[in-house]
């Protein structure tokens, strides 16, 4: 990636211009309550910069993974209300993403005003694999603006209409958040101090299993926790009960274990796990039980790495000089299953070198568990995006800003 990707200044005088900003406002919610507003806070400087420059700011973003049609559970309205509080100025909310409602909301903006469009993933054009379908939706988005600013670092690895296609249709620039994230992550790709340890967890198992291939070439050790553990354990011949499992990835996991061994890279899996007979919900008290990873009962599901594994992961991290961590080790939202995540977070704060945490939920976990953000080298707003950057992959949302 070039060092010269055009920033917002390249768009010239923005007074009175309609500027579409793609932010990543994908925050954890409990009903309509935002449980961590980190990504909204991270989006504020660019939105404020545009507003202060007199632009008519139109924010587009997604929340969760709705199925391409409106779903009130994923409305961005609570997020736009929080954004207004953080900006200290009113924010209009358009109940449509494109079409009449959105056009009217944008037309009503004065210089410096801000509007948020409803969840961009309520439209199936946003995530379509068909270029023409995505393009048609991007045409509609582009009609709402005179220029585009890409500031959602957490989505730059997605070739989606509001990230990629819209940048083909409008004068476009990189926002300060994406630029600063890339600056830090570049330090991990260019001569990282070794040992370089990558810790992976979370629930987006199919996304993240895919990145291991390239990370085997880059890191010295991979510590695996969270939901992806169970596909590895199953690939080793163990039963995993009702735990998360990507059955079609078993051969891939076997290949990773062989490749890593061949190249002298260690893949460290938990030896014990915390299980329960049901996924945590408000309806019942959790009943956490620690079992060997090789002996998960048929009626149980793994919800955290166990205490022996947490101590082993912390010991591996004690020697590291560079660490990247994405994905909680367990269902940290419930205290009974937060032990592994807490142990890894604690170990990262003690790293003698650069420690980077990436991902919406990982960053939220660090804050919710009471850690001081300053104890980490960097807390990135993107998990999957960071991982793909570290793999050396071209990220569509960045490449599109750099084309001639
Ligand atoms: N063993 C597990 N089974 C199911 N979900 C898990 C497990 N471990 C962690 N999780 C869940 O993973 C979610 C975060 O995953 P992910 O979105 O991949 O992380 P990030 O946003 O940091 O990239 C959390 O909500 C957590 O509860
Ligand atoms: O939460 C996000 O990514 P992350 O969990 O990898 O940090 C981004 O908002 C991207 O969301 P997506 O993975 O549904 O495309």
From TrEMBL:
The keyword Transferase applies. Keywords: ATP-binding, Cytoplasm, Glycolysis, Kinase, Nucleotide-binding, Transferase. InterPro entries: Phosphoglycerate_kinase, Phosphoglycerate_kinase_CS, Phosphoglycerate_kinase_N, Phosphoglycerate_kinase_sf. It is found in: Cytoplasm. GO terms for cellular component: cytosol. GO terms for molecular function: ADP binding; ATP binding; phosphoglycerate kinase activity. It is an enzyme of class 2 (transferase). It catalyses: (2R)-3-phosphoglycerate + ATP = (2R)-3-phospho-glyceroyl phosphate + ADP. Its main location: cytoplasm. One of its GO terms (biological process) is gluconeogenesis. Substrate binds at residues 24-26, 39, 62-65, 121, 158. HAMAP family: Phosphoglyc_kinase (MF_00145). Belongs to the phosphoglycerate kinase family. PANTHER family: PHOSPHOGLYCERATE KINASE, PHOSPHOGLYCERATE KINASE 1, CHLOROPLASTIC-RELATED. This is Phosphoglycerate kinase. The gene is pgk.
